[in-house]
Write a structure and sequence with these properties.
Helix content is 79%, strand content 0%. By secondary structure, it is mainly α. Helix 4 (69-79) packs antiparallel against helix 17 (357-367), helix 7 (125-134) runs antiparallel to helix 17 and helix 8 (138-149) packs antiparallel against helix 14 (267-291).
């Protein structure tokens, strides 16, 4: 199944791997991420827990996932994704089942800590690392996964919402556990058999050489790709760009509704504007897949990052002109943000190569923990301090300018193309 990246047509097994990972990621993201908000109200009503207490458990899971991303990525680089992603997805299913029986806040936090460990080994970076090491066209694979994963809330949330309304929150959580087991756990266990990591062959050569009493092989094998990446300005510049992207997306996902209502936009129109971002991101990814399959992350990122900033300017200036101004903002900002998710994943391979992809990708996630987790509260604090969201938008635009400059500098050197 291993092969270097090329423009050759993918084999049937590679197609199965890519589409299997896409389905696995779609269900996992829907079950472990998007569905959480549905359970806030019914659990608050039953237990009397505050929204802050409950979202704190969810935040703990996300932080844990990012902290564990580096060792998980290193494991996948060395051994492939079969063990980590199968066990991780199964563990998540068990945790979801246990969630349906939870009765204490401490137990809820413990479950989400365990959920975070499983997410760190099954979602996002993990699937990208597997596809990068086991397909000839990693760009195509990562793009397909991103397209389908963008539909996760559309697919999973309505099903869970229906079960929650008609059968209660505990039954709805059980349905998530079943979905997680029959989907990601079974798919990962079956499809990832025999997959390798970006450094599997390298470690096998070392093991054989040491067993035979010979030197461990090429001197480059002894150099950690993660350590090498961390010593380059390109990594930290890419980390700044990725952090700005995450911070901006997270901030507006949480605060766009109150901001629009502060401007006098009706609730129904605010919901419409908020809901456009997801489909715009998916459509942009689909367009990228069909019209620019072999496009480099450098070129695409240098278009998408300024477009991201343009979306913010539209929100500042064009949105007051009416409904179509707001819709234009949502389409541009959502499309650019969606494409940047792919750029982040493919830029790692282009700038640093495929060797050590999992560990380097995990390190970028770890570095972005603080921007992702502090975005909602820092934006709220700034809005309260200024008495309005308007100055906050300019600050966000300034961050995006910095992120755009950082990406341009990070991608200024020669590309390795995997």
């Amino acid at each position: 199944m291993t092969a270097p990246a090329s423009s050759s047509a993918p084999t049937r097994s590679e197609n199965a791997l890519v589409w299997g990972m896409a389905i696995s990621q779609t269900l996992a993201i829907g079950c472990l991420f998007h569905s959480f908000t549905l359970f806030l109200a019914p659990m608050q009503q039953e237990f009397g827990w505050t929204s802050t207490q409950m979202t704190g458990a969810f935040t703990l899971g996300l932080v844990t996932a990012d902290l564990i991303a580096i060792p998980m990525g290193q494991w996948i680089d060395r051994h492939g994704g079969h063990f980590v992603m199968s066990v991780g997805a199964t563990t998540a299913a068990v945790c979801l089942a246990a969630w349906s029986q939870v009765g204490s806040l401490a137990g809820f936090y413990l479950l989400w800590f365990c959920m975070g460990v499983s997410m760190g080994g099954t979602m996002g970076n993990a699937s990208a690392a597997v596809v990068a090491a086991n397909t000839r066209d990693y760009r195509r694979g990562i793009t397909i996964i991103s397209i389908l994963a963008g539909l996760s809330s559309t697919i999973v949330v309505p099903i869970v919402s229906y079960l929650l309304i008609h059968y209660g929150w505990r039954t709805a959580v059980i349905s998530l556990a079943v979905m997680q087991f029959l989907g990601p756990a079974c798919i990962n266990a079956y499809l990832l058999r025999g997959t390798v990591g970006s450094r599997t062959a390298e470690y096998a050569r070392k093991k054989e050489s040491l067993a035979a009493g010979r030197p461990s092989g090429l001197s480059s094998d002894n150099v950690s790709p993660l350590r090498t990446a961390l010593m380059t300005p390109a990594f930290w510049l890419l980390a700044i760009a990725a952090s700005v992207h995450w911070y901006s997306i997270t901030a507006l996902n949480v605060h766009i509704m109150p901001f629009l209502q502060q401007r006098g936009v009706s609730h129904d129109l605010s919901v419409l504007i908020f809901s456009i971002n997801g489909p715009a991101a998916v459509l942009a990814r689909v367009g990228l897949h069909f019209f620019d399959r072999n496009g480099s992350a450098k070129r695409i990122g240098r278009i998408a990052f300024p477009s991201f900033g343009l979306g913010m300017l539209l929100l500042i200036f064009v949105a007051p002109l009416g409904t179509w101004g707001l819709i234009t903002y949502a389409v541009v900002f959502g499309a650019a943000g969606g494409v940047l998710m792919i750029v982040r994943a493919t830029a790692i391979a282009e700038i640093f190569g495929l060797r050590g992809y999992g560990a380097i990708s995990g390190a970028l996630s770890t570095v972005s923990i603080i921007p992702r987790t502090c975005a909602p509260v820092t934006i709220a604090m700034m809005a309260e301090s200024f008495g309005s969201y308007e100055p906050v938008l300019w600050i966000l635009f300034g961050f995006i300018v910095i992120g755009t400059a950082a990406f341009y500098l990070a991608s200024a050197g020669p590309m390795k193309n995997g």
